[in-house]
Design brief:
Harbinger transposase-derived protein; 5 helices; single chain; elongated; mainly alpha
C-alpha cells in the first residue's frame, strides 16, 4: 500500500479540494459582483429573474401622442393657462427643461427595451417626474 492512500492523506486531500473549490467559488462571486457593478455604472440594463406575471401592456405610443396633442401641438386641446395651472410653468420653459434634461441624462432619453420596443419618451418621463415632485407623490404607491 502506498503512502498516498493512507487515511490521513485522503482526509488532507479532500480538505484541500474543498478549500480550492470554496476559494474558486468566492473568486467567481467577486468577479460577478464587480462586472455587475461596472454594468450598472455604465448604465446598462442587468438581466433580472423572469417573473411569472406577464408585463402590463401600456399604450406608450398613444400616451405620447395624446400628451403632445393635448399640450404641445399646433391644434391644442388645452390652452396656455391650463398648461400653466397643471404644470406650474409656461409651455416654453417646460420644453426647455425637457430638452436640457434629455441632453444631460441618459435615463430621460427614449431607448429600446430588450424586445426592441421603444420605451417612454422624454416628454412622458419629464411630465411624470415633474408631477411627482410637484405633488410629492411616489409612483406605484
Amino acid at each position: 500500500m502506498s503512502s498516498s492512500s493512507t487515511p490521513s492523506s485522503i482526509i488532507s486531500s479532500s480538505f484541500d479540494d474543498r478549500k480550492f473549490v470554496i476559494s474558486k467559488t468566492i473568486k467567481q462571486a467577486v468577479l460577478f459582483i464587480k462586472i455587475r457593478f461596472k454594468l450598472q455604472l455604465a448604465g446598462c440594463s442587468i438581466p433580472r429573474k423572469i417573473s411569472r406575471n406577464p408585463p402590463e401592456k401600456r399604450d406608450r405610443y398613444g400616451a405620447h401622442d395624446r400628451l403632445v396633442a393635448a399640450y404641445l401641438s399646433e391644434n391644442l386641446v388645452y390652452d396656455e393657462q391650463v398648461f400653466r395651472r397643471r404644470f406650474r410653468m409656461s409651455r416654453r420653459l417646460f420644453l426647455r427643461i425637457v430638452h436640457d434634461i434629455k441632453s444631460r441624462s441618459r435615463y430621460f432619453q427614449q431607448m429600446q427595451d430588450a424586445g426592441g420596443k421603444l420605451g417612454f419618451s422624454a416628454l412622458q418621463k419629464c411630465t411624470s417626474e415633474i408631477r411627482q415632485r410637484a405633488l410629492g407623490s411616489i409612483p406605484n404607491a
